[in-house]
Amino acid sequence: MSDITTPQTADAAAAATAPVLTVDELTIGIGSRKNLKSIVKGISLTLTPGRIQGLAGESGSGKTVTSLAMLGLLPSNAVVGGSIRLNDTELVGMTHRQLNEIRGRRIAMIFQDPSSSLHPQLTVGVQLTDHVTRHLKLSKKQARAHAIELLERVRVPNPAEALARYPHQFSGGQRQRIAIAIALACDPIVLLADEPTTALDVTVQAGILHLLRDLADERQLAVLLVTHDLGVMSAIADDIAVMRHGEVVESAVRQEIFANPQHAYTRELLASLPGAAGFEEATE
Asked: Which one of 9, 170, 189, 237 counts the least CB within 10 Å of its CB?
């Protein structure tokens, strides 16, 4: 029997590939109106379910500031222009109260250093169940069961026991897995990952990257992976945008970026990678 595409299946397919978060001509300045320092200069990005969008660039390029703008986490003296749309909802200009309903629930973030993002005086269990009892209206028993499932999924050993422990009682890699579990607790549709492996050794990095790839595939998460390391991008990103001095200088699917970089800055970044000559072969 031949496959027949109905209007309903066509609509479902279109919805699955439509962007869930769209950044259009985003500008960010820091400072007073009379002394405004331009940090981001009109960049555009789209995040799509099940795909990992890499945002690469050296320190100071504006990539982290871009991700923070998506959650309204910029300093009070930031001036934001352009558009950030979550499906049909405009995020630029939202109040803190409105953004609090989106943070964690629709868009979640994991940071470079899990030691600073996890509260040192609260158990892992408290930190995992706090959001779900508020956003998902789960009972304490349901929230605990949900927390155990999340820790199992991110491969934290002995998850039931882990709930009673504190962040300092885990290794750096395990802390980052816990941070990912917390980010996933309310089933967001967008995950922002800001240098999630920089503080980890190479072996642990690989495990975290594979976990992010698996989660994007399983949950159809739209992921923004922010990093200065194009080597990290080569492992899991579907698409890569390269930032320099607040602008996106090149954007393409991963294979094109590594096999045929168009911008001189992208070529410089690739040339600085260990074993750079082997990347083109690996992406073919």
From this structure: 9
Site of tokens 């939202």:
94
* Encoded tokens for 166: 């504190």
Question: Which of 141, 143, 142, 223 lies closest to 180 in space, CA to CA?
Answer: 223
Q: Could you count the other beta carbons within 10 Å of the beta carbon of residue 137?
A: 9
What is the side-by-side strand order in the sheet with 107-110? Answer: 107-110, 190-194, 222-227, 52-56, 239-244, 247-253
pLDDT tens string 74-115: 999 999 999 999 999 999 999 999 999 899 899 999 998 888
Q: How far apart are CA 27 and CA 79, in angstroms?
A: 8
Edge-to-edge strands of the sheet including 21-31? Answer: 36-47, 21-31, 78-86, 89-90
Q: How many angstroms separate the Cα of 161 from the Cα of each of 86, 130, 143, 144, 152?
A: 37, 18, 15, 12, 11
Residue with tokens 């040192």: 120
Pairing between β-strand 89-90 and β-strand 78-86 as defined by DSSP bridges: antiparallel
State the pTM of this model.
0.88
Rounded alpha-carbon distances, angstroms, from residue 278 to 240, 256, 260: 18, 15, 13
pLDDT at 4: 53
Beta strand ranges found along 87-189 (DSSP E): 89-90, 107-110
Q: What are the backbone angles phi and psi of residue 61, rounded to the nearest 5°?
A: -75, -20
On whether the CB atoms of residues 280 and 261 are closer than 8 A, the answer is no
The three-state secondary structure class of 232 is helix
**Crossing angle, helix 124-135 and helix 172-184, to 10 degrees?**
10
